[in-house]
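Hello again, I could really use a second opinion on something today. I've dropped the whole record in just underneath, so have a look.
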Amino acid sequence: MRAQFVLSEIGVGLRRNLTMTFAVIVSVALSLALFGGALLMREQVSTMKDFWYDKVNVSIFLCNKNDAESDEKCSKGAVTAEQKEQIEADLEKMDVVDTVHRESADEAYKHYREQYSDTPIAATITPDQMQESFRVKLKDPEKYQVVATAFAGRDGVQSVQDQRNILQNLFDLMNGMNVAALFVMALMLIIALMLIVNTVRVSAFSRRRETGIMRLVGASSFYIQMPFIMEAAFAGLLGGLVACVLLLVGRYFLIDHGLALSEKMQLVNFIGWDAVITKLPLVLVIGLLMPALAAFIALRKYLKV
């Protein structure tokens, strides 16, 4: 009987405040969708780092004749055969080094032509302008500085470059987007909480006669508060469900279909469906508990039971 009464009161409250309840659902849905999106964005960045950092190399570029004339770092002339042999031998002795590949000027020119054959500048580059280099794969990509310290400034070495720096700008951009999403999520969350509190206020005021009678007949504070808390929790749960749908639809259209980023950007290792699905329970739990807690706190102040 009590459960039936609580459920009927929930229905009454939702019908009386239909517009505000709808606003709560939309606000909760958008804030939780942004929250889930931010979590997925952070996981995407982590996945991309793990994928690319394992593939990038440290490049040791060697001086050629052109560098000897124009670059102070190569003032002692182009790299000699003995210097190249010594650099390779020293690299192979280092514990942090996994593999070493020497790229000749002709190989570098070939790769350059493959990448930039459609650009006007490609025709102006000749093989003798290309630098020889060592492509060094590290066991731990974070140990770049060990190689840089050992070979930067060495005779015959023009520069030591960590290819991770090329990717870092992309990761920084994605992290910035993640922070922006979290900021908007926090703003939407505050709006949702304010709407929940106002909805509870209006609902409690519209039913003040019923709650007064319940107090007179000895109903407990929890029993009186329960319909209001359940209304807020139900609206939040609906918002959480909508947020889950938005996350699933977003993953479907952005990566698999619609924009089809997985086909257009095949070099990017995108997060899978499992990453999205594992976030859905958290979104639902927050959608359920957050409005219920906000309603509980509001009721203690405004219901006076």
About this structure: The first strand starts at residue 58 and ends at 62.
